[in-house]
Amino acid sequence: MCIRDSRAPCPSVRWRGGRRLRPPIPGIEDPCVICAWDLLRDHLPTGRNVAVIGGGAVGLETALFIASRGTITPDVLAYLFEYGAESPERLKELMYSGTSAVTVFEMLPRAGKDIGKSTRWVLLDKLRKYGVRIITDARVEGIENGTISYDHGGNTHSETFDNVVLAAGSTSEKTLCGALADLGIPYAAVGDCNTPGKIDGAIHGGFLAALAIDQPEHSSEVTSGNTL
Question: pTM for this one?
Answer without folding.
Answer: 0.75
